[in-house]
Amino acid sequence: MAERERVEGYLEGYAEILTGLCETRRRLTPEERAALRSLGERAAEAGIGLRDLIRAHLSAAQRVHPGLPRAAADHLLSAVEQAVDAFAEGHERAQHLAMRQEEAARREFIDDLLYGRSDLGRLAERAERFGLLLSHAHAVAVAQGREPYSDGYEVTRAVESSLTARFGNRRILLTTKDGRLICVAPADEPAVLAHFAKQAHAATDGGQVAIGRSHPGAGGVVHSYEEALNALDLAARMNLDEPVLHAADLLVYPVLTRDRQAMADLVHTVLGPLQQARGGAKPLLDTLTAYFDTGCVTAQAARRLNLSVRAMTYRLDRIHRLTGADPGDPVQRYTLQTAVVGARLLGWPDQPL
After folding, report:
1. How far apart are CA 338 and CA 342, in angstroms?
2. pLDDT (tens digit, 9 = 90+) per residue, 194-246?
3. I want to staple 222 with a disulfide (CB 3.0 to 4.6 A). Which of 116, 143, 304, 320 is the partner?
4. In this structure, what DSSP letter does residue 118 have?
5. Angle (deg, nearest 10), helices 14-24 and 50-64
6. Which family does it belong to (predicted)?
């Protein structure tokens, strides 16, 4: 009974408007339409569903009907249609405004979460509204494809539907940022990010996914997000084509570049002589890359470069003569391989050291 009275509280003046419309066979005045729209907005802001409100409007119309002259009663259906249309317009307008405000608040929260631009205590409070408990540890996965994606895109909806169907409401946040798909999940739910990676790779038509390590607290989300972004950047520089990259597996690369000048000196000293070769250093550097990537198997490296084994062997000998380091020698191989990794990280020889 209380709920019914609450709903009918937003029908103020409705019966009088219906009676006036029926008796005069006119249409709503601008003032009446504005009043009905205002009632609809207030009802939406109070959280009352449109279905219950329309039912209440129809019930009120039934109560008005017996008191109308017969000629006026014939106009009742038209009057109800006009009044409910104006009321629903206001209700929908308020709903759309609320949705835009909610989306703006969500986007602001995501920006603050991923860039750590807000007070951590306040950020943790806001996070609960969006399903995250920042007192726990989280990990972040980032997926990028051949084109940018945003909220509402078919790719985003497909991945979100798959996650929801598989895991339900497990405090997962799926969003987009700078054209990439992003998933934030509790550290104790590793299957969530694994599933996200699989679905995002497929939905983005072979895009690449990077997963950061898990870290505690609000700052941990930022840390994991940055690790995932760095892994994608590293994959681009190192030509890593694995569909899923784990930041934990790539920690050696930041270590190697922590002292950039030392790495540049190593590349210059060890690989610099390759620039004396006909065609420059690039072909011989590609040779070393393929050789090391295939586990130092000459035949397999030759196939990767579309060379004969004889041509591959010649190139390795040429590298030995120019650098003084033998790729086949276990001790000298380590120095060469480290220098090759450094060259890829620094973009040499395309970029000057």
Report:
1. 6
2. 999 999 999 999 899 999 999 998 788 999 999 999 999 988 888 888 999 99
3. 116
4. S
5. 50
6. Belongs to the CdaR family.
Average pLDDT of span 166-192: 89
H helix intervals, the chain? 2-8, 14-24, 30-45, 50-64, 70-73, 76-115, 120-129, 154-167, 190-203, 217-238, 252-257, 260-271, 282-293, 298-304, 309-323, 330-346
- Say yes or no: 69 and 86 in one domain: yes
CA 289/CA 303 separation, integer angstroms: 13
> Considering 99, 114, 144, which residue would you say is the last residue of a domain?
99
Domain that holds residue 306: 254-346
* 296-303 own/partner pairs: CB under 8 Å, 24+ apart: 296/327, 296/328, 296/333
Q: Say yes or no: 237 and 138 in one domain.
A: yes
Instruction: Assess whether 208 and 285 both reside in one domain.
Output: no
Cα separation, 30 vs 33, whole angstroms: 5
**For the domain that residue 154 is a member of, what is the CATH number?**
3.30.70.270
